[in-house]
Amino acid sequence: MSLSSYGQYRHWEMLPGILLWSTFFFAIVCSFLFPIAVIIFIIIFDLYWLFRVTYFVIYLFISWREYRRCLRTNWFERLKELPDWKQITHLIFLPTYKERVDIIRSTLQVLSRVEYPHDQIIIVLGGEQKDHEHFQKNAQIIKKEFGKVFKQLIITEHPKDLPGEIPGKGSNLHYMAETVSKILNEKYPSLLPEQILVSSFDVDTVVHPSYFAYLTYLYLTSTPHSHASYQPVALFSNNIWSSPAPVRIAAFGTTFWLLTELARPERLWTFSSHSMSWKMLLDVGFWQKDIVSEDSRIFLQGLLHYHGNYRVIPMFLPVSMDAVAGGNYFQSLVALYKQQRRWAWGVEHLPVMIEAFRQDKQMPLRKKIRYIFNHIEGMYTWATAPILIFLLGWLPLWVAKGQDLALVHSAPFTLEWLMRLAMLGVFISGILSFTLLPARPKSIRASTWFIMFLQWLLLPITFILFGAFPAIDAQTRLMLGKYLGFNVTKKVR
Questions:
Q1: What is the distance between the alpha carbons of residues 346 and 170, in angstroms, rounded to a whole number?
Q2: Which of 8, 42, 114, 149 places its Cα 20 to 30 Å from the Cα of 362?
Q3: Are 490 and 28 in contact (CB under 8 A)?
């Protein structure tokens, strides 16, 4: 079946929005009609949330320990113990749009220092025709500086207004892959698809020096090789010291969420910068050209093509990218909201997943149920939990405050203690965040360390404004058929 789904399955597109708005409607109405019952529900829900925070912290700590272990491991020495590693070539895709040349240069400089032979690395820099003059100027500079550093540096320019596309990273990546496929067939006919690993990076991605050695090691020691994507730890810390506090909290929150997912690979999807085999990309026809969430959709494409025999293998090494930024404080917050809304637009996968699973008779039913439930539950709690905990949870207490019942009088005390216990997770997250920070620039005052810790007190506000609200926005748009376009995250350092 075609994976292009906008408007095809309206009943499934409407489901997430109906669930969240029904929750808010009944929470408000029942708070006035049945306040005691709602108070009991809120206490149970907050208790459930405390359990979620508890296992969140447990999995976070498990991943953090594995992360620290991998940082200490010499992956290139371990890789050299495998006989076939010299046959693996790395193909690195760097789509770009209106980026400054210093951003691109810094990424290539880091790639030129990785612990992997440069004659086994091909770089693909892909611009947009809409940015023709600026991109070509940057491309010439990059070609002059790095043209002879790697096995090959390929420059592509994605034509504008091609049929069946929406402007965005996915359509650019698709064009880059089609162009590279022709070059590989002509120039490197002896290279087999199974011998090529592809990394799809944001153009500001700074990889760990051992990234490609570690990736190659995982690839060669997993079976079957081509039936897996590889997800590193995504840090948004290139410019973290100069970012506003809400942006920093959101950046670390995203990293911590991903760390907990890495500890549970059965739930894991690809996100942001990640890697996969060229064989898989050829099998699925490359990235889709008409969606927003191409980073996670490419995993779904593999999952469907191989009838469930596809997975994401965790990589406990970091790739660091820029935290979202704007020209001033307010513009940075607006950019953060749009970025979170774009990530929440991953809800667009649900209609495709349900319909494809319904038609696929080879994929195990248990796996279908697990993926659908995890997707719905994750998107639902993203949008509703902060509102229920910090806002609507207090409404039935206000309505029932005149009733002389022990439950009404004790409920505020109970809820406050549940939230205090849950805040221990915030305290632990704040401590772990210090271990993920890059070195403090000399231009940043030492007192910023203290601010970095106090900023976590803003979590409830950030949780609502830049967590729940963007998710509600995305799911409501999908419910109404107001489909979201791709929003480019501005890079400012």
A1: 13
A2: 8
A3: no
Copy the structure tokens of residue 343: 């990530």
**Per-residue pLDDT tens digits for 10-50:** 999 999 999 999 999 999 999 999 999 999 988 898 888 88
Q: Which of helix, strand or coil describes residue 313?
A: strand
Rounded Cα gap, residues 270 and 280, in angstroms: 14
More confident residue, 159 or 396: 159
Using DSSP bridges, classify how beta strands 152-158 and 121-128 pair: parallel, antiparallel or unpaired: parallel
- Site of tokens 């010439």: 140
CA distance 73 to 134: 41
CA dihedral 30→31→36→41, nearest 10 degrees, is 80
Cis peptide before 224 (omega within 30 of 0): yes
Tell how far CA 325 is from the center of its chain: 17
Number of Cα atoms under 13 Å in the Cβ half of residue 200: 26
220/86 Cα distance (integer angstroms): 11
Virtual torsion, Cα 404, 408, 410, 411, nearest 10 deg: 180
For residues 454 and 441, give the distance between their C-alpha atoms in angstroms, rounded to a whole number.
20
pLDDT score, position 450: 84
Going across the sheet that includes 206-207, the strands are 152-158, 121-128, 89-95, 196-200, 274-277, 228-235, 311-320, 206-207
Residue 16 near residue 382, CB atoms below 8 Å: no
Burial (CB count <10 Å: 0-12, 13-18, 19+), residue 304: buried
d(CA 198, CA 200): 6
**What would the two tokens of residue 398 be?**
């206000």
Residue 278 to residues 88, 181, 249, 283, 416: CA-CA distances in angstroms?
A: 11, 10, 35, 9, 52
What is the percent of the chain with per-residue pLDDT over 90, rounded to a whole number?
A: 73
Q: Cβ(268)–Cβ(188) under 8 Å?
A: no
> For residue 296, which of 345, 354, 356 has the smallest C-alpha distance?
345
Q: Is the pTM of this model over 0.85?
A: yes
Token output for 311: 């997975």
